[in-house]
Design brief:
Order of helices and strands: HEHHHEEEHEHEEEE
Helix content: 10-25%
Distance between the termini: 38 Å
Oligomer: single chain
Structural class: alpha+beta
Mean pLDDT: 85
Radius of gyration: 16 Å
Number of strands: 9
Largest sheet: 7 strands, mixed
Number of helices: 6
Low-confidence stretches: none
Shape: globular
Length: 185
């Protein structure tokens, strides 16, 4: 059993907007399990050579396809993706597990558009804020999230790392995280 293999048909008003044609002549759709191998083959390069593919399990596309997005250029080449979901335990929070844009397609509004479309899907499901964890040593990701209105959590346990409030050893030793938060709407 491999789950859905196509995900083109909008199933709600939010889907219609989230999957509508958009900037840079891209096709927008929900990713499916069949997309996993292609995406996992790209993400280490797209993350500047950091080995992050191990955190991109196939289950993400099986269980969170309806709230995740894929932007494709001509010929089906992936221009960007976002894997996210509304938290079952904290339903006011929509969590972005992973998002990236092809480095050759950056600064074209694709990342901003991925987040805008995800926000629509999350709001339809009742979420009130977006949450994303970012490695504080990634200046591109930090600047991008700040640029689209996210603020770093400065709660207890944070300390300045790479010039931004972050949680040291958040996921495991040596894996620090900035927890960015932004209200929906």
């Amino acid at each position: 059993m491999t789950g859905r293999t196509t995900s083109d048909a909008p199933s709600s008003a939010a889907d219609e907007v989230a999957l509508a044609p958009g900037p840079a002549n891209l096709r927008w759709r929900h990713p499916v399990e069949a997309d996993h191998a292609g995406l996992v083959g790209l993400i280490d390069d797209w993350y500047g050579g950091r080995r992050v593919h191990g955190a991109f399990g196939r289950f993400l596309l099986r269980h969170f396809s309806a709230t995740s997005l894929l932007a494709e250029a001509e010929g089906g080449r992936v221009a960007g993706y976002l894997v996210g979901f509304v938290s079952p335990d904290l339903p006011a929070e929509a969590f972005v597990h992973s998002a990236a844009v092809n480095p050759n397609r950056r600064r074209q509004g694709i990342g901003r558009e991925l987040y805008r479309r995800f926000e629509l899907l999350a709001a339809q499901r009742g979420a009130e804020r977006l949450v994303v964890h970012v490695w504080p040593g990634d200046p591109i990701a930090v600047a991008f999230h700040r640029g689209i209105g996210f603020d770093p959590d400065t709660g207890p346990g944070t300390m300045p790392l790479y010039g931004i409030p972050a949680y040291p050893d958040y996921d495991f030793p040596g894996e620090d995280r900035v927890i960015f938060v932004r209200p929906i709407g």
